[in-house]
Amino acid sequence: MDLNADLGEGFGHWTLTDDDALLDCVTSANVACGFHAGDASVMRRVCDTAAARGVRIGAQVSYRDLAGFGRRSMDVPAAELTAEIAYQIGALRVFAEAAGSTVSYVKPHGALYNRTVRDDDQAAAVVEGVRLAGGSLAVLGLPGSRLLAHARAAGLDAVEEAFADRAYTPQGTLVPRTEPGAVVHDGDEVVRRSVGMAVDRSVTAADGSRIAVVARSLCVHGDTPGAAALARRVRDALEEAGVGVRAFT
Q1: What mean pLDDT comes out for the span 142-151?
Q2: Which of 70, 104, 130, 183 could form a cystine bridge with 110, CB 3.0-4.6 A?
């Protein structure tokens, strides 16, 4: 199982994620590319550290929404969204390659991630942006999403992702952050859910039902309080359960 986290979610003197500590235990780093968070200095620093520690670098692309942290859905024309996805990947690639690594995959952030679960036009635009940026980049997304369907159709590696610290609906989608209980704050519960998704391939949904979760990557959100310590607990628990923790790429 790959273990990923959202990193580089700072801007100027403002910081949010404990990038150095998270890079000690994750295998893939979803690096903010400047549209919802991050700037050139932040991207460069995270790429340097990730490369030095052998952590795979991914572009966490978003709607252009710094004020809303990329969590506000936007109706961006397909051609414009395609260009903006390629732009973000290209910006991160400069710093990844300067660090001796490369951008290995792409993961949408926030509202864009949720929108591409069901929206064919936006999902197709994201995949076209990945293709426009060049290279055979993997695409990380929710199992059963339109995003992964379009990625597969384009010949890209479509990687199913599960969430350690987010609540699920009975349909297998994420409970919206606007609803109570959308984020799981109890560390013990996050660890139990993580092991369950990796070993039993299932998780308890918000209504108490048990749903199937088939994933190659597990996300621990970097902006969760105590995220680095929680990610370490999750990794240790996975390894104790006999699950090998390594990058999917």
Answers
A1: 97
A2: 70
Q: Can you read off the two tokens belonging to residue 46?
A: 């995270």
DSSP 8-state assignment for residue 11: B
For the chain, the average pLDDT equals 95
**pTM exceeding 0.85:** yes
Residue 158 confidence class, pLDDT cut points 50, 70, 90: very high
pLDDT band of residue 205 (cuts 50, 70, 90) is very high
Instruction: Give how far Cα 26 sits from Cα of 6, 23, 55, 145, 165, Å.
Output: 10, 6, 7, 24, 15
Question: Which pair of tokens denotes residue 242?
Answer: 């006999």
Cα 195 to Cα 13, 119, 140, 229, 241: the distances in Å are 36, 31, 20, 16, 7
Q: How far apart are CA 114 and CA 58, in angstroms?
A: 18
